[in-house]
Specification:
Strand content: 25-35%
Largest sheet: 5 strands, mixed
Number of strands: 20
Structural class: alpha+beta
Distance between the termini: 53 Å
Radius of gyration: 27 Å
Helix content: 25-40%
Number of helices: 12
Length: about 450
């Protein structure tokens, strides 16, 4: 029997850590087997700043995912973000020994390996080397060089660079949690895999992933990644502003933002007010929703303007670089009311909210198809491509015969169960497998035990 390709993604975010286990079903869609989520302690703006707390949060999320799925996690693909991430454009070439030989995957790998040896600034490390367009013997704009002939193979690359210490800290946290690291992926690239269609990537699109600590940007054009950036602001700064502006505690500020927050102040009438319980013995606080929206609006505008500056730096005003598909918003921040309208107003570009449901199996939980889980879904997709067996089924075997505390059933329930067992026993064919016999005899004894328990209780 063919081995199941079970994939695991781990999204280490600033507000939450998500462990997701999945596999491809027969229709090529992603079937999520289990999700574990924990509050992220020890991560600030996408960077680990407390290893002990991060390990505890990872273990909590991993354990929850394992319990829900019945699989034991061996290794994970992890998303990397943080303000230390930067990207550079670089061109490189190789001279092939035999120009009459067909170009293969090993030639491209040779070129990528060469770029990986680039000298970086002290303390920096290359995370991704992404080929863009190739040139063969001076002939440019070649998307797929494999199968062609030529002596000089040249390519432009999008190189993603990060701080070595931050990347190592993530690796340490994972290994200390008792699992292996099978791959690192830039978070905006993972989110892009989950929420963008191939048509959008061809037409030109900017993906904005608004997380808790950072806002990630990935720009695609002609199906190729063209620009990536990480802006060190996210939903948490909005919560902080509400906390300061309304003089309330963080928990209340977060709830206000999620339940009543809007990025568009004009939507709220002047007389709409929310009452917040006061701290221990103090009077409740009344907060105007219009003021709340003004606070949120100011910060969201700042975040979007920074992202828009990056989009302008890419050069989207150039007709050849035009982003026809506009902007796709994802991440927890994309759930803020009227944020789509605000982004359209600031950028003048078509905008939609990105949900990762396109790649998910039809029977997936509604919660998983929320923009909140876009990165985690993308990381699982990335893990599937690695073709690793990232989790193994936990073999539970036959349930134990003695249970310390049998559940208390009412007498009529016991009779009902007994009747069901008798009906089943009557319908069962004479030739029974050993397993069925064991299971049935166990079930009969279990019902007898409950009966004895109830009789004694009387």
């Amino acid at each position: 029997m063919e081995k199941e390709n079970i994939a695991v993604g781990l999204d280490i975010g600033t507000t939450k850590i998500v462990a997701m286990i999945g596999k491809k079903n027969e229709y090529g869609k992603l079937e999520i087997l289990g999700v574990g989520k924990s509050k992220s302690l020890g991560v600030a703006r996408g960077v680990v700043n407390n290893i002990t707390q991060t390990i505890q949060s990872i273990q909590q999320a991993v354990l929850e995912a394992e319990n829900k799925s019945g699989y034991k996690i061996k290794d994970v693909v992890v998303g990397i973000a943080g303000q230390h991430i930067r990207s550079i454009q670089h061109s490189d070439y190789i001279i092939r020994k035999n120009a009459e030989e067909v170009i293969g995957g090993n030639d491209i790998q040779l070129l990528i390996d060469q770029v990986n040896k680039l000298a970086m600034l002290p303390g920096e490390e290359i995370i991704h080397v992404l080929p863009q367009e190739f040139k063969i013997d001076g002939q440019s704009e070649i998307k797929e060089p494999i199968g062609m002939y030529g002596g000089r193979l040249e390519s432009s690359f999008h190189v993603v660079v990060g701080q070595a210490s931050s990347i190592r800290n993530v690796g340490r946290c994972i290994q200390s949690s008792g699992i292996e690291l099978s791959g690192l992926t830039l978070e905006p690239l993972a989110s892009a895999d989950a929420v963008l269609s191939q048509e959008e990537k061809e037409a030109g699109v900017a993906l904005i992933d608004i997380g808790g600590g950072t806002t990630d940007l990935a720009i695609f054009k002609d199906g190729i990644i063209r620009h990536t950036a990480v802006i060190p602001f996210g939903g948490n700064v909005i919560t902080d502003d509400i906390k300061e502006g309304c003089s309330i505690i963080e928990k209340q500020a977060e709830l206000l933002k999620v339940k009543f927050g809007s990025a568009w102040p004009g939507e709220n009438k002047d007389n709409e007010i929310v009452s917040i319980p006061g701290l221990r013995g103090r009077e409740p606080k009344e907060i105007s929703l219009k003021n709340l929206s003004k606070i949120i609006h100011a910060r969201v505008v700042e975040i979007i303007e920074q992202v828009f500056t990056e989009i302008k730096d890419y050069g989207h005003e150039d007709p050849r670089k035009k982003l026809i598909a506009g902007i796709v918003l994802t991440g927890g921040g994309a759930q803020l009311n009227h944020i789509k309208q605000l982004v359209e107003y600031i950028t003048g570009m078509d905008t939609r909210i990105g949900y990762p449901n396109e790649h998910l199996a039809g029977n997936s939980d509604e919660e998983i198809s929320s923009p909140l889980y876009a990165t985690a879904v993308g990381l699982v997709m990335n893990s599937i491509e690695n073709k690793t067996q990232s989790a193994i089924r936990i073999d539970t075997g036959i349930p134990e015969k003695t249970s310390p505390k049998p559940p208390v059933f009412l007498k009529h329930e016991v009779e009902e169960i007994t009747n069901q067992v008798e009906v089943q026993a009557h319908n069962v064919k004479k030739e029974e497998s050993t397993e069925t016999k064991i299971r049935r005899s166990f079930f009969d004894r279990y019902v007898d035990k409950i009966k004895d328990f109830l009789d004694n209780a009387e």
